[in-house]
Amino acid sequence: MNHISYYLLFVFSLYFLGFCVARKDDQITSLNKLMESRRSENPPRVQPWTEEDTSDLSPLSIVPQQGSKEEDMIDKLPGQPQVDFDHYSGYVTIDSKVGKALFYYFAESPHNSSTKPLVLWLNGGPGCSSFGYGAMEELGPFRVNSDGKTLYRNDYAWNNVANVLFLESPAGVGFSYSNTSYATGDKQTAKDSYTFLINWLQRFPEYKTRDFYITGESYAGHYVPQLASLILSENKKTNGTVINLRGIAIGNAVIDDNATDEGMYDYYWTHALNSDETNAGINEYCGYGSGNFSATCFHYQSQSGSEYGEIDIYNIYAPFCDGSIQKPATGSVSLSFLSNTGNYNVLLFEDMMC
Ligand SMILES: *[C@@H]1O[C@H](CO)[C@@H](O)[C@H](O)[C@H]1NC(C)=O
Ligand SMILES: *[C@@H]1O[C@H](CO)[C@@H](O)[C@H](O)[C@H]1NC(C)=O
Ligand SMILES: *[C@@H]1O[C@H](CO)[C@@H](O)[C@H](O)[C@H]1NC(C)=O
Ligand SMILES: *[C@@H]1O[C@H](CO)[C@@H](O)[C@H](O)[C@H]1NC(C)=O
Ligand SMILES: *[C@@H]1O[C@H](CO)[C@@H](O)[C@H](O)[C@H]1NC(C)=O
């Protein structure tokens, strides 16, 4: 939750920087100050991760999965074009006592699927759906047409080269749910994802010894290495290879906030979005790693936003808005926590948090 609100503030601030530049500079500065003060007051609570943390995993619930694979096979998604690969979706119960089940969508590769690796994809947040974002907007086999009803093939789908498993994690995200308890935290998430995997492999036994990769983005900067660590420690415990983990990949990783911020401004500068003067000011006055964000730092951060202007910072070379393909949600948000209040139009790009 802390992380989400931190990101919301971050995103809102980007909007202000990007869209309301013409508005009053002091409002931008106020928002920046608020963002920074909230952050230091209430930083995201990331749990420290050590190998010992994985020792209390048992008892793992492995339940027989006979027949479920056939039941999970998808005939056709609504509005879907003909395809030459098999895809599946369904639930895997990971805790029958509390009634917790995780939802997955699995797209096999059209060609030579039996020799291609198995790749797990995790969106971040925390709270972002791997089906809604990862599968339907990013690397899945389909994209949604602007009619909102039909699908088209994504030429750059990862299932061209791998069998891709999209997992909604943790419970409470996307279609994944729990009937009673939503105990959360990085450790619980890793443990639940691990329990999901060993049960899913019972359902799809032909993948049990397949080369396995874990990938993800954003807050998956936590999910990916933590799940990898758990898999390795479980493999060690059983003196065997329960899961044949071969590698991990993370994009836009949330691992360390200081480094992320520093890297972000460095990116603007090295991509000609910020002036030398602004970059020098940020380097001199923001002191990432020192925890010292001065008023001068805020000034340069605001200036950074004014300079890069109305662009999508996640895709700086793309047109900002293409109404014929995607329409960002627009809404009116009252930012009553600012001293100088008012209603602003805010564009919501959930991708920025996911
Ligand atoms: C959750 O509750 C519903 C309604 O009782 C039930 O159908 C479902 O199987 C339960 N889920 C799990 C994972 O136990
Ligand atoms: C499938 O695998 C075979 C044998 O390795 C190879 O000859 C063929 O080119 C592959 N087909 C595709 C489409 O990758
Ligand atoms: C794994 O190997 C160690 C050392 O050879 C042995 O003490 C332990 O019992 C083995 N564990 C299992 C689960 O086989
Ligand atoms: C940033 O670095 C400072 C100084 O090392 C540290 O006190 C602070 O906790 C770091 N912030 C985050 C969010 O990691
Ligand atoms: C924080 O930054 C301000 C402005 O650069 C500076 O005057 C002050 O000494 C710094 N404080 C610490 C503790 O580094």
UniProtKB/TrEMBL annotation:
Signal peptide residues on this chain, from the entry's feature table: 1-22
Top-level taxon of the source organism: Eukaryota
Entry-linked PROSITE patterns: CARBOXYPEPT_SER_SER (PS00131)
GO molecular function: serine-type carboxypeptidase activity
Protein's GO biological process: proteolysis
UniProt-listed InterPro entries: AB_hydrolase_fold, Peptidase_S10, Ser_caboxypep_ser_AS
SUPFAM superfamilies: alpha/beta-Hydrolases
GO CC annotations on file: extracellular region; vacuole
Similarity-based family: Belongs to the peptidase S10 family.
Name by which UniProt lists this protein: Carboxypeptidase
Biological source species: Lactuca saligna
